[in-house]
Automatic annotation (TrEMBL):
The lineage of its organism: Eukaryota, Metazoa, Chordata, Craniata, Vertebrata. Catalyzes the reversible phosphorylytic cleavage of uridine to uracil and ribose-1-phosphate which can then be utilized as carbon and energy sources or in the rescue of pyrimidine bases for nucleotide synthesis. Shows broad substrate specificity and can also accept deoxyuridine and other analogous compounds. The gene is upp2. Phosphate binds at residues 93, 137-140. It comes from Salarias fasciatus. This is Uridine phosphorylase. Its EC number is 2.4.2.3. Keywords: Disulfide bond, Glycosyltransferase, Transferase. It is an enzyme of class 2 (transferase).
Length: 310
């Protein structure tokens, strides 16, 4: 017989939801999701979030608010999309908007920032007893041999040595986790891109770095310890290993979702071709339009899954 558990508001539920992999959580009276400004005691998480089916994350708070407003219109939901409220307004670390079955959350820049958000988000999905959730990272990136504005659906999220792995230091020891993403979701996204106009999309490997400048082989940081030739050689090696774009969160995103049994995809637009330069020179309106491309693609995916389009 399945064990009887109490959910976060004290009601019975009779099956384990396996999104978290931490037995300590079961013994805690209250779980405070500090950086999201939510808690199992002060919020009815199943009521607030139990119907979530899609979670979209991205670095910038403005982008994730714009995405929430966009998906609100696309799903033709009632209410004014301009009036959606930030669920995490009690903190300025992250923003979070819920639009029907879609949650849109910002994660800031880099692995430490997204990983804190993911710990609390995954616990939130667990406490809310969400089922069959798909996560997307909607980001920007530097292209490797691609025209600016190309959307890359990540096949493998790889580290600086082009390996599909994420290394985390735990109690002074390095733990290595696989960064495999969901193949079915990636191929469904590619199919979606073929049904849309003006969303040039490729599938390829995404390299995740811990820095935007030296870590991505840029010559224009405050520090630079290598030559133009060294940079091009590294980018050529990356290209030969299947890397088509570079960003700063994909490996930990893929690794944490995978361990927790959550289907996930990474969809990033390229802002420049790194073989041609380091500075992002496109005008603001062009960059805004580029950033909408992953949103349009993922919105199409969501609408297809929900039966809005066939
Ligand atoms: O556009 P976002 O989602 O922030 O992603 C990319 O942009 C930031 C660097 O400018 C890094 O966080 C990188 O991963
Ligand atoms: O070159 C780029 C552009 C956006 N984000 C990155 O991490 N790198």
């Amino acid at each position: 017989m399945a064990p009887i558990l109490l959910n976060c508001m004290g009601n019975e539920r009779n099956e384990y939801i396996k999104y978290v992999k931490n037995p300590n959580l079961e013994t805690m009276e209250e779980d405070i999701l500090y950086h999201l400004s939510l808690s199992t005691k002060t919020h009815n998480l199943p009521e607030m979030f139990g119907d979530i089916k899609f979670v979209c994350v991205g670095g910038s708070a403005n982008r994730m608010k714009a995405f929430a407003q966009f998906i609100h219109k696309e799903l033709e939901l009632s209410g004014n999309p301009e009036e959606i409220t930030d669920i995490c307004e009690g903190t300025d670390r992250y923003c979070m908007y819920k639009v029907g079955p879609v949650l849109s959350i910002s994660h800031g820049m880099g692995v430490p920032s997204i990983s804190i958000m993911l710990h609390e988000l995954i616990k939130l999905l667990h406490h809310a007893q969400c089922q069959d959730v798909v996560l997307f990272r909607l980001g920007t990136s530097g292209g490797v041999g691609l025209a600016p504005g190309t959307v890359v659906v990540t096949e493998k999220a790889v580290d600086y040595s082009f390996q599909p792995q994420f290394e985390q230091v735990v109690l002074g020891k390095v733990i290595t986790r696989s960064t495999e993403l969901d193949e079915e979701v990636a191929s469904e996204l590619l199919q979606c891109s073929s049904e849309l106009q003006n969303i040039p999309t490729v599938i390829g490997n995404t390299m995740c770095t811990h820095d935007f400048y030296e870590g991505q082989g840029r010559l224009d940081g405050a520090l630079c310890s290598f030559s133009h030739e060294d940079k091009l050689e590294y980018l050529r090696k990356a290209y030969d290993a299947g890397v088509r774009n570079i960003e700063m969160e994909s490996t930990v995103f893929a690794a944490m979702c995978r361990v927790c049994g959550l289907k996930a995809a990474v969809v990033c637009v390229t802002l420049l071709n790194r073989f041609e330069g380091d500075q992002i020179k496109s005008p603001h309106d062009v960059l805004v339009e580029y950033q909408q491309r992953p949103q349009i693609l993922v919105s199409h995916f969501i609408k297809k899954r929900l039966g809005y389009v066939v």
